[in-house]
C-alpha cells in the first residue's frame, strides 16, 4: 500500500467517524433534516428490537425514514457512540460502533447499550450511511 492510499484510508475513516458523530448531534438536537442528509438516497435503517406494537424493524426510503425519525427525535434521545471500528474498501466501507442511548423510556432502549452495524458509501466525495442497523446487547 502506498503512502497516498494509506492516507486516503485514514481520511475516509476520519470522515466516517465524523459522520457517526454528526448523526448523534442531529438526533440529540432534533434536527430531522440534518439527520436525513447523512443518509444515501437508497439507504435503509433497521432496529432489531421486537415490540408488541411493531414500531421497529426495517425502514426503507427517505420518506419512511423521515416518519420513523420524526417520532424518535421528538423524544430527544441522547446517543453516545463508542469504540467505532471502520473497514474501508474503496468508495464503500463497513463499521461497528457501540452506542448508549440516554434519555429514553426503558421500553425503547436497553440498559446494557447496543451497537450499530453500518454500511457507508462515498457519494460525490461525501461519506453517507448506506444502511444502519441497531442491535441491543
From TrEMBL:
All residue ranges annotated as the SnoaL-like domain in the record: 9-133
Lineage top rank: taxon: Bacteria
Pfam family, any one: SnoaL_4
Name of the molecule in the record: Nuclear transport factor 2 family protein
Amino acid at each position: 500500500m502506498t503512502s497516498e492510499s494509506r492516507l486516503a484510508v485514514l481520511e475516509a475513516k476520519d470522515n466516517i467517524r465524523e459522520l457517526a458523530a454528526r448523526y448523534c448531534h442531529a438526533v440529540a438536537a432534533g434536527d430531522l433534516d440534518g439527520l436525513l442528509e447523512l443518509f444515501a438516497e437508497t439507504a435503509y435503517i433497521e432496529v432489531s428490537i421486537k415490540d408488541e406494537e411493531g414500531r421497529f424493524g426495517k425502514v426503507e426510503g427517505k420518506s419512511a425514514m423521515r416518519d420513523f425519525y420524526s417520532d424518535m427525535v421528538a423524544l430527544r434521545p441522547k446517543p453516545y457512540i463508542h469504540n467505532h471500528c471502520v473497514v474501508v474498501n474503496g468508495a464503500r466501507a463497513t463499521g461497528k460502533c457501540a452506542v448508549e442511548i440516554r434519555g429514553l423510556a426503558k421500553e425503547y432502549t436497553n440498559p446494557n447499550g447496543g451497537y450499530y452495524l453500518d454500511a457507508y458509501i462515498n457519494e460525490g466525495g461525501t461519506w453517507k450511511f448506506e444502511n444502519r442497523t441497531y442491535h441491543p446487547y
